[in-house]
Amino acid sequence: MSAMTSQAVDGAPTGGRTLRIAHLYPELLNLYGDSGNILCLRRRMEWRGITPDVMEVRVDDTPSFSGVDIVFIGGGSDREQRIVCDKLLAERAEIRAFVEDGGVLAAVCGGYQLLGSSYLMADERVEGLSLVDLYTDHGDPRLIGNIVVESPISPQPIVGYENHGGRTHLGEGVTPLGRVVYGHGNDGVTGYEGVLYKNVVGTYVHGPLLPKNPGVADCLIARAMERKYGTAELGPLDDAEELAANQVMYHRLMAGEVRES
Ligand code: GLN
Q1: Is residue 12 predicted with pLDDT exceeding 90?
Q2: 109 lines ligand 1 (CB under 6 A)
Q3: 160 pairs with which residues across the strands?
Q4: Shortest CA distance to 148 belongs to which of 156, 137, 136, 140?
Q5: Whose CA is nearest to atom 3 of ligand 1?
Q6: Which helix (H) or strand (E) holds 200?
Q7: Which of 33, 60, 193, 228 is in Cβ range 3.0-4.6 Å of 185 for a Cys bridge?
Q8: What is the 69 CA–ligand 1 centroid distance (Å)?
Q9: Does the predicted TM-score (pTM) go above 0.85?
C-alpha cells in the first residue's frame, strides 16, 4: 500500500512520546483489510517519532483500558459479531468511561454497529454498547460497493468500500461522520454516513479506511496526542502517493467509470 512509502518531511521531534492502541478482537473483526488501519496508525506515528504500543485484545482476554489512547474495532460477519458481543458488553463500563473521558475510538462496520444500543441480525436483536445514540436494523438487499463521503474531519473526500446488511439510524441531533456523495452509507436513504461523538468515529467505510484516507488517520492521532500531551500538532508527512490514490478513485467514481455489481 502506498502509505508505506511516506516519509517525514521535517522529522518534527515529538520527544519520546508514546500512544497505546487497543485493537479489539483482531482474530474475528478483520474484514476487507481492516487490520491495515493499525499498520497505518503505527507507521504514521513512527514517521513522526511517536512510539506506537499496540495491544491486541483477543476474545478470551480481559483487557484494561487504563493507559489506552486509541481503541480500534473492525468489521465482521454477523456470526463473528455475535461471538464478540458478550465479550464487549462485559467491558461496557470501562469503554464508556474511556469515551466520556475523550478517549479516541474508531469503529468500522460491524464494530460501528456495536457502538449503538442494538443491532438486529437476521433472527435476533443483540444489545450493543450504547456508547452513542444510534441503533441498527437489518435490510435487504445488502448495501455493497464503493463509497465516497465528505466529512469535516478529513481534508480529502473519504473513499472506501462498504458491504453491510445493517441500516444504522442516528438519534435526534447525533452528528454523522459526513455526507454520502457516492454509495449508500448508514441506511441508503438519509445520505448520511457514520457517526461522530466526542472522539469516537464510527463508519461503514472499509478499504481499509485509514491508509486510503490519511486525513482521517491523522485526525485520530492528533486527537489522541491532544488528550495525552496537550498538543494536537503533527509534523507533516509526504502523502503525495496516498493523496494521488485517493484522488484517482474519487474521480473515477464521480465520473461513473466504475461499474458496481
Ligand atoms: N455483519 C454486518 C452487516 O452485514 C457488518 C458487516 C461488515 O462489517 N462489513 O451489516
Answers
A1: no
A2: yes
A3: 147
A4: 156
A5: 164
A6: strand 200-203
A7: 193
A8: 26
A9: yes
